[in-house]
């Protein structure tokens, strides 16, 4: 009897292990899908595809390596960089970059686009956030599937987190997980952590290519105070102010936020400190990032409609207007693309020798009219 | 589709039924409730979400497992008993200072690591025998250790919940030292004096000495304490001199300390000891994994959002009550989770008041989550270090300190601007 019970117990243990192994295998296939990169169809005007490893060879072959799309106009001019995907849970940032890659034409100067700045963060989603792994858009080129990722580098690439993250070189203390947040790691260092190396490569790229104007596109939850905002540093605040005024005439309202001196590691602060580029960071409001959201699914990414956020708007706890029309992806991408074009236009006006002329991008109203699908 | 409140009710009832009626372990009951919640919400059987949710606790699970081994190594090598004897012999004549220094001593690892569990299982475990030999009932000793560990986790220089709350509004972790000292030290000393002073006022050393474990220090010298010293040096070194100390991670530090224990004092079978320690940690590990799934499904189905909106919808007075109840209750899932999910919206709701004081107070209240069942990380391990199997017997002694802590936190929020002038 005793040996029978022992045998039964062992069989039960073996069965449990087999079930766990089968579930792990099945789910690992699902997780591995996230390693694949979206297929893009760059506009014919694409001049060259560079890689981040060209500026920091140690990244070659790692998940930190990422493509840099270069569009050079026939006329010489200034150099503009646009970064999307610093935080891959902020889709308007990288979707704006993708839209530009697939549609832009540059008549004067050079435009560089890094759509997946923290490529590793595209390869996973955050535990306990219940986020979808993908969302789809039926565009002109067919059904397009895009990744939804995480704010931070995949722990597969950088682990364990320290208890406290000490920013290099300032020594500023932040919660340990921020060590994997690209936008807390600038200026980075060549022998640092994985994320510090990605940040270092981006700074090195800006320095080497002598970028004049650099954008970092983000999103934030609707309750976050810095949202629908343009963040600028000392050198870029004049352009940002002028752009916000002109955009207000188009009924696109932005708050102007100065880059804090004592909050280190952010792109606008460290690009100001370590490069000659004029840094601009832009934020739109994205409900799927927020803590107040209800059901979490791919629909929320595209529509930005959520009944909990409607309740929150009535409570007056949001930083942006929010009604039953939600905050669709086309609105968020439209704001980024319109503001980007406006700032480049003002920069070119103020710096005629470094002017950049960008064509073939939709305006905000065109995107509202035709939808985002028209451009994919 | 079912409304969020109904999904929440179904999940909660499923958990209660599974845990109390079917008598499944808490971890398994949480997994069952998560699966039922997902099915009711029309999400099918979301294996990916269930597995992904557990990964939030990978690091805490490693810390708990290795800290349990480390604590047992200290006990078996004779270091625990010897230190306990030393504290009693040297300080039994000064009861106030005895409790004062013991409080600071227990809090210390929490102050430098921001982890209440590591605190309970290191300094908490070290002083527990001494406090019990001094005559303090073991349940009260467990309560003292649990509360001190929570205050240690919140006290400066490292307070992870405050960093999480600040990070949510891009507020750097600067200027929190004085508010956090104000939030924790008076409470910690007050609570421990309240729980233990009457027992240590008069100590008859001669009566206690025969009950104490023999002093292993005479046989092994400072080598006896080398695992403890090594762990403290590594934890401190990484914090204070990051340029010289590589980031080993807390689990590896505990493992290094445990291995050092093989050569520090009395001999023991390390294989058996590790096996036994992990066996003891398994129920808590199971609970953490179950909680990871539970919260992932709550977020996926919109239940989490409903709870946050519900808390923010409360009128002013009830919102204070909401903070002092919802944050600790949500902290049952995780104090860090509570700081992130509820702490950030509550801080935003109080923008305009001194944000550093409000953030410090919210972090203090979120810390109480480590007392809340089913996870109750600080509480369960404090019960374990005093040899008490039923955490609920300890919980009753933490109720008054917890209420005092919540009231202290709420007072800080109400008076944030006034306190801001002094702190």
Net shape of chain A: globular
- Report the count of strand segments of chain B: 0
Q: Low-confidence parts of chain A, pLDDT < 50 over ≥5 residues?
A: none
CA(first)-CA(last) distance of chain A: 68 Å
Task: State the low-pLDDT regions of chain B, or none.
Answer: none
The averaged pLDDT of chain A comes out at: 95
Q: Please give the largest β-sheet of chain A.
A: 9 strands, mixed
> What's the shape of chain B?
globular
Structural class of chain A: alpha/beta
**Which radius of gyration of chain A do the C-alpha atoms yield?**
22 Å
Radius of gyration of chain B: 22 Å
Largest beta-sheet characterization of chain B: none
* Count of individual helical segments of chain B: 22
Q: Which CATH top level class of chain A fits?
A: Alpha Beta
Q: Please identify, by name, the CATH architecture of chain A.
A: 3-Layer(aba) Sandwich
Write up what this structure looks like.
The complex is a heterodimer of chains A (about 375) and B (about 425). The longest helix of chain A is centred in the first third of the chain and has 31 residues, at about 1-30. Chain A has about 375 residues and is α/β, with parallel strands linked by helices. In chain A, the strands form 3 sheets. In chain A, strands 1, 2, 3, 4, 9, 10, 11, 12 and 13 form a 9-stranded mixed sheet that branches. Chain A has one domain (about 30-375): 3-Layer(aba) Sandwich (Aminopeptidase), CATH 3.40.630. Helices cover about 35% and strands about 20% of the residues of chain A. In chain A, strand 10, helix 4 and strand 11 (about 255-260) form a beta-alpha-beta unit. By secondary structure, chain B is mostly helical. Chain B has 2 domains: about 1-45, no CATH class; about 45-420, no CATH class. Helices cover about 75% and strands about 0% of the residues of chain B. Chain B has helices spanning about 5-20, 25-40, 45-55, 60-75, 80-90, 95-115, 115-135, 140-155, 160-170, 175-200, 205-210, 215-220, 225-240, 250-260, 270-300, 305-310, 315-330, 335-350, 355-365, 375-385, 390-415, 415-420. In chain B, helix 6 (about 95-115) packs antiparallel against helix 10 (about 175-200). The relative contact order of chain B is 0.16. The model of chain B has no long low-confidence stretch (mean pLDDT about 90). The chains are: A alpha/beta (about 375), B mainly alpha (about 425). At the A-B interface, helix 1, strand 8 and helix 7 of A face helix 3, helix 9, helix 15, helix 16 and helix 18 of B.
